């Protein structure tokens, strides 16, 4: 199996059926891969073409439709009064 991940700025995937790298159960003929979307890729729809060839030279192809979403920034510093409403009161434990 091979795929073109250039639409998301990733190298060609290594596809697994061994219970690792995104594959849940090894040896079940369900193949998976992990890929990281390059930070320069904007939000929107992407299509990833996949080609399949087996040991008997049979071929097939498909496309994985992927929606890239804008990354959510983590919150800044947390101030005690944001977590504890009574923050700043003297004499409290």
Describe the protein.
The chain has about 90 residues and is mainly beta. The protein has one domain (about 1-70). It has one helix at about 80-85; strands at about 1-5, 45-55, 60-70. The chain has a three-stranded antiparallel β-sheet, with no helix packed on it. The mean pLDDT is about 85.
State the helix count: 1
- Uncertain segments are none
Taking all Cα atoms into account, the compactness measure Rg is 22 Å
The biggest sheet, with number of strands, parallel, antiparallel or mixed sense and barrel status, is: 3 strands, antiparallel
Portion of residues in beta strands equals: 15-25%
Oligomeric assembly: single chain
Name the overall outline: elongated
Strand order of the largest sheet: 1-2-3
- The end-to-end distance, rounded to whole angstroms, is 62 Å
Instruction: Indicate how many domains the architecture comprises.
Output: 1
Q: What do the pLDDT scores average to?
A: 83
Helix content: under 10%
Give the SSE order as H and E letters.
Answer: EEEH
Q: Which class do the helix and strand fractions yield?
A: mainly beta
Total number of β-strand segments? 3
Task: Give the helices and strands, then pairings.
Blueprint: E1 2-3, E2 44-53, E3 59-68, H1 80-83
Antiparallel strand pairs: 1-2, 2-3
